[in-house]
Structure formats: C-alpha cells, structure tokens
Amino acid sequence: MGEGLPRAVSIKGITKETPKIRTFRLSGSFTFTPGQFVMVWVPGVDEIPMALSGEDTISVQEVGDATKAMFRLEKGDLLGIRGPFGNGFSPRGKVLAVAGGIGAAPLLPLAMQGKVEVFLQGAATGKELPFRKALARETDLRVATDDGSGGHHGFVTDLLGGVKLRDFGSVCVCGPEPMMRTVLRILDEAGIPDRGQFSLHRYMNCGVGICGSCAIDPDGLRVCREGPVFTGDRLAGTEFGKYTRDASGRRKKIG
Q: Which side of the chain, N or C, has fewer Cβ within a 10 Å radius?
C-alpha cells in the first residue's frame, strides 16, 4: 500500500502470548521484509510504530496509552495500518538472532523462514518469553531469564559467551537498547561490529521521513527511513544506547 491514509483492517483473532504480550491477527496481509514496521492507528487514541510479526500479525506489549487501548479491543474491532515502512534484516551466511522481550516479534518471521540457526531469547521471567514453542521448532533456541525461571539465570547477553561469534555472517538483534548496546560492544571487541544488525525503536510521528522526530544524533539518520535496522558499525558514535527523545524532542537517558 502507499504512504497515505491508513488502511482499515479488522481484528480476526487475538492470541495471548504472555501476560503482557498479545498477537493480533488482521484481516489484511502484507508483503514485507522481516524487521520492517507499520504505523498502527488506534482510533481515538494514537498512531504508533509496530514491527510485523507475520504477514498478517502484529505482536503488542502493553506499555503505553495506545497499547493499553489495544488490549481492550476485541475480535471484529478496527485498526488503521500504514506501511510497511523502512528497511529490514538482510541476513548473510549463518544467522544468530538475539532478542529481549517483545524484541522477538520482528525476528520471528526471520526464524519462521528458516533463516536463523541459533536464537538467543531473554525476558524477565519464563512466563514472559513470547513465541517460545514456535522458535524451538525452527531454531536452536537458548533462553535466559532475569529470575532464573526459564533457562539461564541471567541476561540474554550472557549466552553470547557460548557461541562462536565469528562463525556467523549476521547477528540480528532486537530488544531493550541497553541489551543491544551490550551486544554491539561484544561484537566490536570481537572485531565484527559490521555483522550486527540492530532494530531500533524510536518515537515516530509521520513514519515516512518527513517530520524528523526519529532522527538520531549526530548524523540525523532517520529510524523510519534509513532504519529501523542498522548495522553495528553505522551505530558506532551515535546516541544508540545513550538516550532517546520524547514527543517534544527532549532527550531521555537510557538505562
């Protein structure tokens, strides 16, 4: 579809993935590259960016006004969708995926296409690991939880010590920015930051590169157009992992 008005779609089904994550199956399907996003309009509330978790699905974590409103929606209710926008993951060679929480959503299609060999997944608890069964069928899934209730007791980045990073042509990453920043540091120490592909989440207003609200310092890279997926070497020296901006453009420190 074009970059104009939202396309109205109805909710065909809702799956509770975790206590705070739900997948919405939509009446329309999308041709997309894993990692691309759509702008989701919740009527009367807001429009926000979300990664596609499948050709006709978006997976949502309840974190703000728009997502809380979505959690009140039911089968048959309408949403507005613009997109897909931005770039996606471009895996080369063997692929290692690293996901934290809802960051597994844009990586799920890549795994379901059979393009991920090893998938490292982390969350606060075992109950908060989305798509676990599907990922285990398609990949060598290795899990970490903050409280030890699932897999390794610790951070998902701890699991990087158990893989030979240089064996992978691509390391595709999405999740909380402090986690992604740690992955970039580890790749940089291994001399392969360019193999990292990081999916960024930023406040967006237009989603098509006009308003500049998602531009990152110091070069003004627009997450909606040049991203949301960036290679690690391109993120070196930027605000990545340090701060983001709110709707007013004011800096918000990360971590």
A: C
